[in-house]
Amino acid sequence: MAFNSIEDVQQTLSSDHYLADRALATSVFLAEQLSQPLLLEGEAGVGKTEVAKALAHATGARLIRLQCHEGIDLHQALYDWDYQRQLLAIRAAEAGQGGELPESRLFSREFLLRRPLLEALEEEGPVVLLIDEVDRADDEFEAFLLEFLSDFQVTIPELGTVEARGHPLVIITSNRTRELHDALKRRCLYHWIDYPTPDREQEIVRARLPEVPDEIAERVCAAVARLRAQELYKLPGVGETINWARALLALGTDDLEEALGVALKVREDIDRVREQGVLEGV
């Protein structure tokens, strides 16, 4: 994977219907040129994860995704041993030979379970490594991740050091539910993705759903902009905008409230919007 220019990044992403502004395309270009991870922050639903998906799909690279969560540890992210197969192998050795299985075989590649980070290191072709929602992980995992991203190699005690065969393009996303440590931020390039303007969001809807009439795209994007100006529990993201337009097309209606549950996912938000007539006149 190699980009010749910022415009090349924009064209590559647009070929997969992802419309990136110049600032985002510049960050992706620099991440590839400088071989540095790119940290994308922003509200949930603004399209951070989709950047990695679009890059992988448009370039033919393999997308390897590590979904972070509370309590994630080394064995879920890097590697683990297939304990069940090891136990079966031990029993088979004892039954067939009356002896023990050598430890060198027991902790060999034969019984190794590769997790996303190890897969990214050992992939020979182009790779986009997506480390999604890193803010959900704890401090200990963040410290391990910093070490991994610094060297792009890991040591497995039983097998030795595994170095990267290539250099994956690393995209890290955060919804900023907590502040990340400065050490991790210093290791990465940084870009904040905000909600698109209504006009820009219309372009996104038309790119994803060319069959949707312009009138519906315009009304849906105007309605979403109005919803985002409210004090709601969960604001609709770009994905909800696209699905809202798709739902209206499927229903054969332009009644925004008829498919309000596509855009809003919290009962109190739906009740408030309807009671206060937030969408009236859209």
Protein described:
With 282 residues, the chain is an alpha/beta fold. The protein has three domains: 6-78 and 115-192, P-loop containing nucleotide triphosphate hydrolases (Rossmann fold); 79-109, no CATH class; 198-275. It has 14 helices and nine strands. The longest helix is centred in the first third of the chain and has 15 residues, at 83-97. The relative contact order is 0.14. The mean pLDDT is 93.
Shape: elongated
How many helical elements? 14
Q: Total number of β-strand segments? A: 9
- The number of distinct structural domains comes to 3
Low-pLDDT regions: none
Strand order of the largest sheet: 2-5-8-1-9
**What CATH architecture of the largest domain do you see?**
3-Layer(aba) Sandwich
Strand content: 5-15%
- For this structure, the CATH topology of the largest domain is Rossmann fold
State the end-to-end distance.
Answer: 44 Å
Helix residue percentage: 40-55%
The value of Rg in angstroms is 23 Å
Largest sheet data: 5 strands, parallel
**Succession of helices and strands:** HHEHEHEHHEHEHEEEHEHHHHH
Assign the CATH class of the largest domain: Alpha Beta
The CATH homologous superfamily of the largest domain: P-loop containing nucleotide triphosphate hydrolases
Mean pLDDT: 93
Structural class: alpha/beta
